[in-house]
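Can't paste images in this forum, so I'm doing it all in text. The chain is below; anyone willing to post the predicted structure tokens underneath?
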Amino acid sequence: MAAPHTPGPTTPSPPPLSISIGVLALQGGFSEHVQLLRRASTLLPSVSCHITEVRTAAALASCDALVIPGGESSAIALLAADGVAAAVRAFVRDDKKPTWGTCAGLVLLARQVEVAGERGEGALAALDVCVVRNAWGRQVQSFVRGVKLPFLGGGAAEFRGVFVRAPLVKEIVGLGEGEQRPAVEVLARLPPAEGEEGEGAIVAVRQGNVFATSFHPEYTPDTRVHVWWLRRLVQDVTERRRRGGDNI
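Text version of the structure:
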């Protein structure tokens, strides 16, 4: 009689990838981003996402990625407090960690900012674009419009774009002599208004580790943009840790 089969030891499943995502919480729509990131993370069961509110350089130091939300123009002054500006600049530009800016976050990330026809240097200068601040006017000119986002995949339904005192990307700024960075990718445009010529206003861009949108995905219940960004973040963090560029 054959001896009963004894199963060998089972190989334990690897622990889920753990990622810490900071949301700059000085003012603006940070709580909405936190809520939507938490909802989006449930769609990635193999990843353990820790979403934290960032108010200090010390809190930022433990993050793998950062979201800079929209808000008032005073965000620039607040950002400079307690060394946060220098820490964010190093996080985005030197460490090249994934960073997403929405609305005012786009303004902070841009290399150049245009206000009333005058251009100046952006606070973080991490994204090689010139943005026009309050491009469609003030609060009363805010609007909601369907936006096609091809980066979400072919056949994706229009996204409900919420534009509140929104900036637009006026142009891509050329690199200076000796500068080497990835090219800026245009990810989405608003369709031209009736009677308007051209391709439509640029409302979403990406350059290397930086992603930015003119509109506020966090002001809708739609998690698609947050899920897309989280998936790219997982790829980036996995590759960074494989190279030994970060601690697990």
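The longest strand covers residues 17-24. Residues 25 and 55 are 6 Å apart (CA to CA).
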